[in-house]
């Protein structure tokens, strides 16, 4: 049975994105929530974002400086109740 997994990206952004890519290996539905800060793109981050996009993971952010689907913090909080697993990073 497919699980819905939410990855909340806060502090260790590069590690959280790497882990999100790994979570897609079980063919579960993975969503990434990049919270608060602007995501700085280095080589590792760019590769992981590209791979998540290729694997059809949904990427959201509450910061308008990030080029992902925008949601308010309140909208994200409501969305998280729909997930089977929520992993904060």
What's the short story on this structure?
The chain has helices spanning 13-23, 43-54, 73-80; strands at residues 4-9, 29-34, 58-61, 69-70, 85-88. It is of the alpha/beta class and 89 residues long. The N and C termini lie far apart (25 Å).
Topology:
Blueprint: E1 4-9, H1 13-23, E2 29-34, H2 43-54, E3 58-61, E4 69-70, H3 73-80, E5 85-88
Parallel strand pairs: 1-2, 1-5, 2-3, 3-4
Helix pairs in contact: 1-2
CATH fold-level label: Hypothetical Protein Ychn, Chain: A
Strand order of the largest sheet: 4-3-2-1-5
How many distinct beta strands? 5
CATH architecture type:
3-Layer(aba) Sandwich
Oligomer: single chain
Average predicted local confidence, pLDDT = 96
CATH superfamily: DsrEFH-like
Q: Could you tell me how far the N terminus lies from the C terminus, measured between alpha carbons in angstroms?
A: 25 Å
Order of helices and strands: EHEHEEHE
Question: Taking Cα atoms only, what radius of gyration do you get, to the nearest Å?
Answer: 12 Å
Largest sheet: 5 strands, parallel
Helix content, binned percent? 25-40%
**Derived structural class:** alpha/beta
